[in-house]
Amino acid sequence: MLELLQHEKKVVGIKQVTRSLTEGQDVKCVYLASDAETHLLDKMRQLALEKQVEVVPVESRKKLGKFCGIDVGATVVAVLK
């Protein structure tokens, strides 16, 4: 499933994902790196829950970044509809 991230329309990073969710963009699901800081994970989970968006846990930031096609780790990625 993560392999699909390379070809999906997406936003990467806490600021961008937060903006997408709060401004009403059509978000299909949110991928969260399990090794991110707890307060960030909690904030993103809560926001996704409020917006009724599925949250998909990912093993690490490095792995999430790799599947997004970027050379650095990613804490959160939102796949857009």
Automatic annotation (TrEMBL):
GO terms for cellular component: ribosome. Pfam families: Ribosomal_L7Ae (PF01248). Residues 6-80 form the Ribosomal protein eL8/eL30/eS12/Gadd45 domain. The keyword DNA repair does not apply. Keywords: Ribonucleoprotein, Ribosomal protein. This is Large subunit ribosomal protein L7A. It comes from Anoxynatronum buryatiense.
